[in-house]
Amino acid sequence: xxxxxxxxxxxxxxxxxxxxxxxxxxxxxxxxxxxxxxxxxxxxxxxxxxxxxxxxxxxxxxxxxxxxxxxxxxxxxxxxxxxxxxxxxxxxxxxxxxxxxxxxxxxxxxxxxxxxxxxxxxxxxxxxxxxxxxxxxxxxxxxxxxxxxxxxxxxxxxxxxxxxxxxxxxxxxxxxxxxxxxxxxxxxxxxxxxxxxxxxxxxxxxxxxxxxxxxxxxxxxxxxxxxxxxxxxxxxxxxxxxxxxxxxxxxxxxxxxxxxxxxxxxxxxxxxxxxxxxxxxxxxxxxxxxxxx
Length: 293
What we know:
Blueprint: E1 15-24, E2 27-31, E3 37-41, E4 54-61, E5 67-70, E6 81-89, E7 93-97, E8 104-107, E9 120-128, E10 133-137, E11 156-165, E12 169-174, E13 178-183, E14 196-204, E15 210-213, H1 218-235, E16 240-241, H2 249-256, H3 260-272, E17 276-279, E18 282-285
Parallel strand pairs: 13-15
Antiparallel strand pairs: 1-2, 1-4, 2-3, 4-5, 6-7, 6-9, 7-8, 9-10, 11-12, 11-14, 12-13, 14-15, 16-18, 17-18
Helix pairs in contact: 1-3
């Protein structure tokens, strides 16, 4: 079958791993094993398939409102935020290019301001349960911060950079669910808007917003930089390097690709362990004596 009942089993707006049930001239019908079928048109069959083969597909609705499968990858799935470009505006709303043949509608009621053709906007992709169609909304605040964040410090998350807060840092969307912030003090170089980053939780604030860092757990980060510094010193014939805790952030980043704050922590650890010593122009490796002392 291929009607709205399919949505009870096959996830509309998501990827589904479905089995080839039967082949037809115009494609292949895929099944979830519970009697729900959806068409995969032949234009998406780059190679022949056989009955019983599993195929990973994205399921959405075509222009006739029928569920259809595709092997193409959309720029955003249901439940995700993305920056998408407007390809057309008409009496219904704005249509966005989201990487599929059928474009994604943003109805006028879901636009903060009237969208313009060629413009790029941050939107949330969701399933309209009244029409059972996938649509998008530019009113992102409706879809963020609706559940209590439950993260431990150091937890890995995905962060979409959507706004720069001058003199403070960058506002981000965390795991498509929460507001977050990456402070300038945590960065070695500016971030680009619209990029998605791997980040780590520094703190969950009482208001539910999340402070992030782009480095992993502090101890792991410090150890990695310390190992890198030791490798540079050991590779030097004199066992020295012409940077120190007084060097500029730019000099440190050029050599070690880390912030000055993290560099100083790693350097302090090596100094306390008596593995390095400071000189007037840099750092020197402390080589063990012949008797090992």
